[in-house]
Design goal:
Elements lengths: L5 H12 L3 H20 L5 E5 L3 E7 L3 E5 L6 E4 L3 E7 L1 H8 L4
Antiparallel strand pairs: 1-2, 2-5, 3-4
Helix pairs in contact: 1-2
């Protein structure tokens, strides 16, 4: 599996905009930091919708009072928490559903 880093995203964006990497790096960092802050500051649930790309969501989970430790079999309590979820948009989903050649 190939990993694309933020540095690679910045480089590709700079090429598309015909800008310096240093200028583009500031913009890309700001966008990611803003999205992170929005998701972290959400009281319980929040939704960031980027048209033609997808939706980032923070969802609340329910507490699990009767969860089990798989090693010991001990019954433990798992408190409610928040989790992240990404749902791809229609364009991205259509492309990802195509068979691999």
């Amino acid at each position: 599996m190939r990993t694309i880093t933020k540095k690679e995203v910045t480089r590709r964006t700079a090429e598309l905009l015909n800008e310096k990497i240093s200028t583009t790096e500031t913009i890309v960092d700001t966008v990611f930091n803003t999205m992170r802050e929005i998701m972290m500051s959400a009281d319980s649930e929040v939704r960031i919708e980027i048209r033609d790309f997808g939706v980032f969501e923070v969802k609340k989970t329910n507490p699990k009072p009767n969860a089990r430790n798989p090693r010991t079999g001990e019954v433990i309590y798992v408190p409610a928490r928040r989790k992240t979820h990404f749902k791809p948009g229609k364009v991205l989903k259509t492309i990802l559903k195509k068979p691999i050649e």
